[in-house]
Amino acid sequence: MIPDFAPPSADALPLWAVWKGDPLADQAGPWPTASGFAAKAGEICLLPDASGGLAGAFLGLGDRAQAGRHRFVLAHAAALPPGTWRPILPEGLDRDEAALALLLGQYRFTRYKGSPYSGPQFTCPEGTDAAHVRALAAGEFLTRDLINTPANDMGPIDLEDAARALADEIGAAIAVTTGPDLLRSNLPMIHAVGRAAEQAPRLIDIRLGDTGPRLTVVGKGVCFDTGGLDIKPSASMLLMKKDMGGAATALGLLRMLALTGAADRMRIRVLLPVVENSVAAASFRPGDVLTSRKGLTVEVNNTDAEGRLILADALALGAEESPDLMISLATLTGAARVALGPDLPPFYCDDDATADALSRASMAVRDPLWRMPFWDGYESQIEPQIADLDNAPSGGMAGSITAALFLRRFAGGAGRYVHMDIYGWQPAAAPGRPKGGVGQGARAILAALPQILP
């Protein structure tokens, strides 16, 4: 589904969005008050006309002082009766955010059950950059669809097909290195992690734009993670179709960059190391020592810490071009969820100006991120006795930080490096965010780029 607004129509019903305590439109008469409407966040009041039909509706925005708690509250409008509705927004409400909420509320994953969205349609609110909002929603819908698709239909081959389809849509160049060619191309850790699976591991390399600063985005693409020989318990394996959420978010971001025209002023490269971490005779083993593209050796102390291994080779490859900015997106550690929960991904960056731009943009566009430190004092934890690096330090503390430190070892050469430890999943339904796959960080990156790469 490609989200879009309905064309303007004289028959469109008015939808007034109102803050709690604000006066209601004169056209409503006493009905809203008599029906108990209090403008609580997401509350809807349908307005009858003289013949018993619909004359319009109110949608509550909640308490203005608590607006930060109600992200994308206008997505509740998806519960309105089918038809075309014309949103009327109060002064001070961010138009683009409200319009995006209306589109995000229409998302449904219906590949295996149900029918496509058939609910209300909305005209674009006045004062909105409609093309920009459509681009944001289109990128987010792509990310959600990819994450929500189970691994039997979203293995490495399928993810490559999705990447090729997007490259064709936006006019990007794409190259894919697969199976034994990974070894010939000096991408040994991607090969080691994925060699046991029925579908061969691969490195997807997409390029768009030919002028301006260089932006390289690396997305973790573990299409399913059993944990390898350090196999996960069943409960921990249930959501592992989402372990390619970094790659899905990178593709969603690429779609946003293309559709908003941001790709016209920069050289974009998206690198996706794509594997299944499977259990078979060819599985890499605990205790193995792998040699990376960069030449650093890595002792495998847990085969369930495979994401950082494939990212390392892709980061080393990306850094060889010395991009102005390199970003890794990965569903990497449970430690990040313990620290900050599912809604607030940590990010790591040594450059204060870049980090500040990302932090400000993330809050402005309601795509929250929280800066965490590359804490040099923990470097010794990722240095084992018999190799340069340890992929799974013992002790269980600061797991997200040590993973980020591990990745930083391979990003040297990039002008600036940002790592985002995302979750990629909405555990409970919220406005505009049904339970299931969700993009994190892409809109924040898009909003911050004009300040980071002017």
From TrEMBL:
Residues 302-309 form the Cytosol aminopeptidase domain. SUPFAM superfamilies: Zn-dependent exopeptidases. GO terms for cellular component: cytoplasm. GO terms for biological process: proteolysis. Keywords: Aminopeptidase, Hydrolase, Manganese, Protease. PROSITE patterns: CYTOSOL_AP (PS00631). Signal peptide: none annotated. The keyword Glycoprotein does not apply. GO terms for molecular function: manganese ion binding; metalloaminopeptidase activity. Belongs to the peptidase M17 family. PANTHER family: LEUCINE AMINOPEPTIDASE-RELATED (PTHR11963), PEPTIDASE B (PTHR11963:SF20). This is Leucyl aminopeptidase family protein. It comes from Paracoccus lichenicola. The lineage of its organism: Bacteria, Pseudomonadati, Pseudomonadota, Alphaproteobacteria, Rhodobacterales.
